[in-house]
Amino acid sequence: MDADDSQMTIASLSALTPAEQAVLDQALTGVPARGIAEHMSLSEATVRSHLSSIYVKLGVSGRVALLAHFRGGESIVPSVQAPASPRQRSASVVGWSWAAVSLLEGAYAVYLGSGALANGGSQETWIFTFGFGVLAAGCARLARAILEQPSRKRLVLSLAVAGGHLLFAIRGIFLGPPQPFIVMGAIAFAS
To answer: The whole model's pTM is what?
Structure first.
C-alpha cells in the first residue's frame, strides 16, 4: 500500500461505526461470519449486514478483496469450503427426539432428587438420581451433536444408545422398582 492508499484507508476506517470496526477486526483474522456472530453475540444476519456496509465504505468487492487490501495487495487464495448440505429431516427428528429424552430424564432426576431430599432418600434413590442425571447429560450432548453436524456415525450411535436405554429398562423392570425403568423403556421406544 502506498501513502495515498494509506490515507484513503484511514479516512475510510474512521467512517466505520464501532460495531463495524469490531466486525472488521474479526474478519481480518479470517473468521467466517458465523464465527464472528458467535464471538460477538450477534445474529449471523447482523454480521453479514455489517460486512456489506464495510465493503461499501472501504470500496472493496468482498472478503477476499478486503483481505488483499489490508495485506498490501497480496494475492490471496480463498479457502474453499464445501457448501453445507441441508440437514436431513430424519437427522433433525432424531436430534430433537434426543433433546426431548434429555429433558425428560433430567426432569426425572430432579423429581427423584427433590423427593430424596425431602424424605431422606435411600442410597438406591440417590444412585438413580445420579444415573438419570448422567443419562440426561449424555442425551443432551448426543442431541446437540446430531443437530449441529448429523452423520451416519452419529445416527448409528443414537440407535445404539436407544437400544441401551431399552435393555436397561427391561432389566430394571424385573430387578428393581419398576417405575423409573418403565419411564426408561418408554423413552427408548419413543427414540
So the answer is: 0.44
User: CATH top-level class for 12-70?
Assistant: mainly alpha
- pLDDT tens per residue across span 96-135: 877 887 787 788 888 888 888 888 878 877 877 887 787 7
The residues, ordered by sequence, that sit 6+ positions from 23 with a Cβ below 8 Å of its Cβ are 36, 40, 47, 50, 51, 54
Instruction: Tell me how crowded residue 138 is: count the other CB atoms within 10 A of its CB.
Output: 15
Alpha carbons 158 and 127: distance in angstroms, whole number: 24
Burial of residue 78 (number of CB atoms within 10 Å: 0-12, 13-18, 19+)? exposed
Stated as kind and residue range, the H or E segment containing 23 is: helix 18-27
Cell digits for 171? Answer: 432389566
**Would you kindly state where each structural domain of the chain is located, as residue ranges?**
12-70, 89-190
